[in-house]
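Give me the 3D structure for Quinone oxidoreductase.
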Amino acid sequence: MPHAILVRQAGGPEQLSWEEVEVGDPGPGQVRLRQTAIGLNFIDVYHRSGLYPQPSPFIPGVEGAGVVEQVGPDVEGLKPGDRVGYAGPIGGYAEERLIAADRLVKLPDDISDEQAAAMLLQGMTVDMLIRSVWPLHAGDTILIHAAAGGVGLIMCQWAAALGATVIGAVSSDEKAELARAHGCHHPIVYSKQDFVAEVVHLTDGKKLPVVFDSVGRDTFVRSLDCLQKRGLMVSFGQASGPVEPFAPGLLAQKGSLYLTRPTLFDYVATREELDRSAESLFDAVRTGKVKVDIGQRFSLSEAAEAHRALESRNTVGSTILTVD
Ligand code: NDP
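Predicted structure for Quinone oxidoreductase (324 residues):
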């Protein structure tokens, strides 16, 4: 029988348990997928910890790639042997899984399974952020937090390739160098430097039209202080914990700011949106705008170790779980 990682009770990484699972035949609209690589994402921590509650037991993981093994009734356009990837449907930490066919993206020959598993969620998120949420233009100056992380390294490269000036906040000198090597023009080591003061300094007091904040609780209010009047705060994650509740008047006090809290799944909800976003990402890789850095590999059975590394900020770039 195939194995998967199950969570029976929300909690720490120790709740991730390697078990045999029954997969079964695909139902209408589903395929059975044999996975070759699985993406690790911060949302997996939110699921495991109970921040985003799930019915238990459940199999975490929202990103992967592999080969279609079996096709259920009413599935069009896919056949056994096709290479596919996905970002979305939970249940990814598994050697084999069932998945809705309409959430799968066929992988082009020049995109490997590992690349797909390492970038589909994080890369389509960047596509959402810089094309839909804030259509980025050459000459824009932006701030991205966690600039050496999975989303961060893709964002630095892609935004720089589009002609933006990228300011990136990171926790260490090593991460600052890595971000710089991926297109971040001004890395700020926020553990040593006040990132608001640095943004004011780097922009000659003008501050920024947009900030991309995935850290959440620890940075939210100070990120607002980096914005120009009528600037856009994009709060798209909460690695340090959820943002504390606040009164909308705060946005007026800080300069008539706009706030959005986007989630990728609302931006790739239709088949057309999903295909457009995936193709935009594949094209960015193909044209050399984005190189996907797999910073770490863990065996799927060692998912708990991968979670510990991610939560203790010991990962850089993307992380994949390998299927042995
Ligand atoms: P990362 O690789 O970016 O890892 C998280 C990083 O956040 C860490 O490396 C660390 O970087 C930073 N961080 C700051 N504070 C903490 C803390 N208290 N604990 C742990 N890490 C902290 O993860 P991902 O690329 O997978 O995701 C990045 C963010 O984007 C997450 O917040 C995620 O939820 C969000 N996201 C949102 C999506 C959406 O649809 N809205 C989709 C995909 C991702 P450093 O050491 O430099 O501080």
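The pocket of NDP is lined by residues 41-43, 121-122, 125, 146, 148-152, 170-171, 175, 214-215, 218, 236-240, 262-264, 310-311, 313, 315 (CB under 6 Å). Let me know if you want a second pass.
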